[in-house]
Specification:
- It is a single chain.
- This protein is α+β, with helices and mostly antiparallel strands and 339 residues long.
- 34% of the residues lie in helices and 21% in strands.
- It is built from 10 helices and 15 strands.
- It starts with a strand and ends with a helix.
- It has helices at 13-21, 30-57, 59-64, 74-89, 109-112, 154-157, 226-236, 254-264, 283-296, 327-338; strands spanning 2-3, 92-97, 104-105, 116-124, 135-143, 166-172, 176-181, 186-192, 197-202, 204-205, 213-215, 247-248, 267-270, 300-302, 322-325.
- It folds into 2 domains: 2-205, Fructose-1,6-Bisphosphatase, Chain A, domain 1; 213-338, D-Maltodextrin-Binding Protein, domain 2 (3-Layer(aba) Sandwich).
- The protein binds 2,5-anhydro-1,6-di-O-phosphono-D-glucitol and manganese (II) ion (2 copies).
- Residues 75, 98, 121, 123-124, 126 line the site of one manganese (II) ion.
């Protein structure tokens, strides 16, 4: 369920961020600046994502571009844009990104003094770029643990998801949206391309406690744990009382699959398998931010047993099985895993 009160119509992302700042009496605008800069990078990435199809249609032009500019892969481009924007904000001392093996630290004076670190998946669902299917950007913001004025350290990034100050995603879909939380519910903004601004469109997103969509890559079925196989069967069985069979929907971009289920109700599963006992999705920059949003919208996110946000990360690119979405659906799936 989404509420759109009239008085909020026409409010831009930046205005909203500044308004919200007044909810935190000691806020100095640092987080606001950081979020605004992520918004700017998102607009630049959006511009390139929109052109990607065109470049692909004119395939040869794309590959032999004399300027050598549009040949960059979009995920690397997105990574660079976000790094540049976060550095420019002066509020971020370091970044963990899917695209970089190690943390990226900034050593200019302003950034060294930055209070925050960011974990990000610059382009999520990148296998969908070439085929004009929705993709996204995911981000997660923490307060640093190391003293301000020093270089960011690995410990700053290995914090539990419960410590997140803010998290969100941008979805580049039939429209482009930014959805984020600072722990006071989930808010969504839609990019109005005519004015180049993200405008408040979803004042408060509450996810239905139950739904009838299940999202899982069934191509991996034979490798799934027994509990997951049985849960899939449960989703497919007919039962009028519980609105079954459910509908299967799987895009292959976590952001897009989660966004749909968030609004309509549903469950997204990327489980552990015999060959990948930790699943595929990464804890720091995929599961934790999505879990924070899910919980803030009234949903749930677990690894099948444990709350995602309470898992102590050990490494930057650690993977974790992921079950998220409508609370009652996640609980039902967990019941099957226990049996
Ligand atoms: P990324 O493009 O950032 O590597 O992420 C892809 C992820 C995620 O978006 C999606 O849910 C999942 O991989 C899809 O994996 P399968 O193709 O194995 O279903
Ligand atoms: Mn991803
Ligand atoms: Mn990615």
């Amino acid at each position: 369920m989404v509420t759109h009160p009239k008085e909020y119509q026409g409010i831009t992302l930046n205005e909203f961020i500044i308004q919200r700042q007044t909810n935190f009496p000691y806020a100095k605008g640092e987080l606001s600046r950081l979020l605004s800069h992520i918004g700017i990078a998102a607009k630049i990435i959006n511009r390139e994502v929109n052109k990607a199809g065109l470049v692909d249609i004119l395939g040869e032009t794309g590959t032999t571009n004399v300027q050598g500019e549009s040949v960059k892969k979009l995920d690397v481009f997105s990574d660079q844009q976000l790094i540049a924007a976060l550095k420019a904000s002066g509020e971020c001392c370091g970044i963990a990104s899917e695209e970089n093996q190690e943390i990226v630290t900034f050593d200019d004076e302003l950034s060294l003094d930055g209070k925050y670190i960011v974990c990000m998946d610059p382009l999520d669902g990148s296998s969908n770029i070439d085929v004009n299917v929705s993709i996204g950007t995911i981000f997660s913001i923490y307060r640093r643990i190391s003293p301000r004025g020093e270089k960011a350290k690995i410990e700053d990034f290995l914090q539990k998801g419960t410590e997140q100050v803010a998290a969100g995603y941008v979805i580049y879909g039939s429209s482009t949206m930014m959805v984020y939380t600072t722990g006071l519910g989930v808010t969504g903004f839609t990019l109005d391309p005519s004015i180049g601004e993200f405008c408040l469109s979803h004042m408060r997103i509450d996810t239905p406690e139950n739904g009838k969509i299940y999202s899982i890559n069934e191509g991996n079925y034979i490798k799934f744990p027994e509990g997951v196989k049985k849960y899939i069967k449960y989703c497919q069985e007919k039962d009028d009382a519980t609105n079954r069979p459910f509908t299967s929907r799987y895009i292959g971009s976590l952001v897009a699959d989660f966004h749909r289920n968030l609004l309509k109700g549903g469950i997204f599963i990327y489980p552990e398998t015999a060959t990948n006992p930790s699943g595929k999705l990464r804890l720091l920059y995929e599961c934790n931010p999505i879990a924070f949003l899910a919980e803030q919208a009234g949903g749930k996110a677990t690894d099948g047993k444990r709350r995602i946000l309470e898992i102590q990360p050990k490494t930057l690119h650690q993977r974790v099985p992921f079950y998220t979405g409508s609370r009652l659906m996640v609980e039902k799936a967990e019941e099957f895993l226990e049996r």
